[in-house]
Amino acid sequence: MSQDVFTVKIAGPAGSGIKSSGLLLSHILVAHGFNIRDYSEYPSLIRGGHNTYQVSFSANELFAPHYDIDVFFSLLPQHWSQHTSEFNQSTLVFGDDAPVVLPLKDLAQQIGGHLYVNTLCLGVIAYIFSLNQDTCHQIITQTFGSDTPNLKAFDLGFDYASKNYAQSKITLIFPQKITNDKIYEGNEAYSWGFIAGGGNFYAAYPMTPSSGAMHFLAGVQEKYKITFIHPEDEIAAASLCAGAVFAGARAATGTSGGGFALMCETVSLCGAANLGVVFYLVSRPGPATGLPTWTSQGDLLFAVNSGHGEFNKIVIAPGDQAESFEFGAESLNLAAKFNIPVIVLSDKFVAESSASLSDLSTKKADIIISQQPLPGTPGQEYLANSYEHDAAGYAVEDIDTINKNAAVRQQQRQQIIKSLPSPKLLNNNSSNLIMSWGSTKSTILETLKLLENKYDYLQLTTLWPIDAEIKTILSKYQKIFVIENNATAQLVTLLKSQFDFNPVKIILKSDGRPFFPEELVKELKQYD
Amino acid sequence: MINLKSGITPTWCPGCNNFLLFAGIQQAIDQLGIAKENVVLVFDIGCIGNMADFFNTYSVHSLHGRCIPTALGVKLANPKLTVIAIGGDGGVYGEGMGHLIAAARADAPITVVVSDNHLYSLTTGQTSPTTPKGSKTKSTPLGSISVPINPVSLLHTINPDVMVDSIDGRDPQLITAKLVEALKHPGFSLLDLQQICVTFGKELSA
Ligand SMILES: Cc1ncc(C[n+]2csc(CCOP(=O)(O)OP(=O)(O)O)c2C)c(N)n1
Ligand code: SF4
Ligand SMILES: [Mg+2]
């Protein structure tokens, strides 16, 4: 089989434009019709350290970035040696001190300094893969304007490569047509879903990796008539949303684990007072400040159990950027329908990685409107109460009402289960099943491609409340494999609390990095 | 007169200053001619917060310390509404102090009414941010070591544009008059009502 997926990686210190040149490359690839999936690593600092951006691309279907690198650039000396496990014999590793010498320091002097060597590398890439130079120029001009020194840097890279690397060219099969001509990070996709779902109130406090949604929505607040506010803390963000929903807004707040911890009392308030607020929770590894810029699925049980007391809430988890859009809209509908807190549980790997998709800005979603009485309407005055209360909202402590309220919540839970996103089963007629939730979806689908679809795959999109019907699906399989990007197999714990559940193998990873397809292929091959 | 009462009998101690505020809020809304459905009251938690049950208006009984951001959420979502946040010295100046400062900085268009009885009363009398220094309370049996805050000078330092007043919370006419003034103020307003908790407040230092 000829190679179908190629991966380019750029590495260097923070502040050297790794991500911006990486995204530029992705846009160039998408303009050629390729599908892309990217991934970037960066430490929580502004200058120095070690940043990377990698993008995998393919003329065919592509679900996740790959681990093995075809072309690598070290923008400064010594930014390549820690990546040797990602290289094979044919990997081209470029840099001042790398196996394929690219004298960036010298070349930089011809283009006004080291600032532009990232774009120079794009010129080398364009030559190596025989990309269309006009298309590249066009994208660079669109991004930086027509008088940008980046054009000269690109041309210098291209020229230098044509003189020195003629024997290193890589032959690609170019796509016939462009299907997915836009690139979205999960945070942006979620935001477009929020807009499509009629979201009109967003209050958030900055916290990586959720801030992308806040930046995006703050930027488009006027255009899409969104009331946007960055308040004093996360408690205020959640409280603002609670008040806004009471007054009829479709409201969401976004944060990561630490901020969500501060919001938990409000999650509980929303459950008690029937306020349908959406919490966009983008996980990173904890505990405490943890690893701010890395990825984790370590907050599943935290989300499910968030807020003190017993009340109904919904937890749904997008598996990729497309589902981030879908659930951005769907979460607002669920919140409006049931008037309870809805948590959209994502993570850094989905939220800060990009995928090529068709245009989301024009995509429509169905909108369900809340039936709660609205302030301003005469005769329907009521109290939204954080205390246990009767139907009009007044606080009560009598046994009958307390028991009745518990029964109503129980009934509502059954109604909710019927309305939630169903698990997605990819049926390959196998007797073995891989099961996961959230961001591992994309890597698992890419893995199955490499394994020629030897497994069925079940993605749980709803994590709470759990539909016991899942059991029926699971009972058909001989072997079940669970894959989670955390240390303690939280999905397994959750399912065991609901029914008998005994997967044969649990594959875990909790080092802040996502799974890569090559890694899962190796793991799963042991069970062939 | 406009009727905003739920009919639920107030559960405050006889002689509690909150009765006067309860009447004052209704009179102020009546005098301003605001339609009942356009008023939203957002309550904090405490003896004062229990007022939520005695009104029949669009109301939120929120969380301890959170009446200000919740009220601001209501106002931002529908600016046509008259939104009043009602809390105690514990909720507004203690647990929710960060929200108060932020709302004053932003000149947020809401009115905050504080039942300032110098104590956490619903929790049976512990020290609050306005308890006089040296007071013996249930949580400061050896005498409180902190000086009390002065909400008026504090807020004026933060933002001279806000309207803030501290008045005798036992003067019914003054309460209504000042509430009317605060509700007419287009930006942020805070009315601090100096009260005495008749049950737990007798032993506070002068
Ligand atoms: C998060 C939280 N912490 C503590 C409490 C307990 N609590 C209830 S009311 C209150 C103090 C109320 O004092 P204040 O705001 O002055 O109101 P007052 O009772 O004096 O009217 C406290 C600490 C609570 N309900 N929630
Ligand atoms: S304890 Fe104090 S504040 Fe509470 S109701 Fe009684 S008098 Fe009023
Ligand atoms: Mg008090």
Biggest β-sheet: strands ordered side by side in the sheet of chain B: 2-1-3-4-8-7
Distance between the termini of chain B: 39 Å
Could you name the CATH homologous superfamily of chain B?
A: Thiamin diphosphate (ThDP)-binding fold, Pyr/PP domains
The total beta strand count of chain B reads 8
The whole-angstrom Rg of chain B is 16 Å
Describe how the helices and strands are arranged.
The complex is a heterodimer of chains A (about 525) and B (about 210).
Chain A: E1 5-14, H1 18-31, E2 35-41, E3 48-58, E4 71-74, E5 92-95, E6 100-101, H2 104-110, H3 117-128, H4 133-144, H5 149-164, E7 182-185, H6 186-196, E8 201-203, H7 211-219, E9 227-229, H8 234-246, E10 251-255, H9 257-273, E11 278-283, H10 300-304, E12 314-316, H11 321-338, E13 342-347, H12 348-351, E14 354-357, E15 383-385, H13 399-419, E16 424-426, E17 432-437, H14 440-450, E18 456-460, E19 462-464, H15 470-474, E20 479-484, H16 490-496, E21 505-508, H17 517-525
Helix pairs in contact in A: 1-4, 3-5, 6-7, 6-11, 8-9, 14-17
Chain B: H1 18-32, E1 39-43, E2 58-61, H2 67-77, E3 82-88, H3 89-95, H4 97-105, E4 111-116, E5 119-120, E6 126-127, H5 151-158, E7 163-168, H6 172-184, E8 189-194
Parallel strand pairs in B: 1-2, 1-3, 3-4, 4-8, 7-8
Antiparallel strand pairs in B: 5-6
Helix pairs in contact in B: 1-6, 3-4
In short:
Chain A is an alpha/beta fold and 528 residues long. Chain A is 36% helix and 19% strand.
Q: How would you describe this protein?
A:
The complex is a heterodimer of chains A (528) and B (206). Chain A has a seven-stranded mixed β-sheet, sandwiched between helices. Chain A has a six-stranded mixed β-sheet with strand order 2-3-1-4-5-6, with helices on one face. With 528 residues, chain A is of the alpha/beta class. The relative contact order of chain A is 0.10. Chain A folds into three domains: 5-168, 3-Layer(aba) Sandwich (Pyruvate-ferredoxin Oxidoreductase, domain 3), CATH 3.40.920; 184-419, Thiamin diphosphate (ThDP)-binding fold, Pyr/PP domains (Rossmann fold), CATH 3.40.50; 424-527, 3-Layer(aba) Sandwich (Rossmann fold), CATH 3.40.50. The radius of gyration of chain A is 25 Å and the shape is globular. Chain A contains 17 helices and 21 strands. In chain A, helix 16 links the parallel strand 20 and strand 21. In chain A, helix 1 (18-31) crosses helix 4, helix 6 (186-196) packs across helix 7 (211-219) and helix 8 runs parallel beside helix 9. Helix content of chain A is 36%, strand content 19%. Chain B is an alpha/beta fold. Chain B has one domain (38-205): Thiamin diphosphate (ThDP)-binding fold, Pyr/PP domains (Rossmann fold, 3-Layer(aba) Sandwich). Chain B is built from six helices and eight strands; from the N terminus they run αββαβααβββαβαβ. Chain B has a six-stranded parallel β-sheet, sandwiched between helices. Chain B has a two-stranded antiparallel sheet with strand order 5-6. Chain B is globular. Strand 15 of chain A pairs parallel with strand 2 (58-61) of chain B.
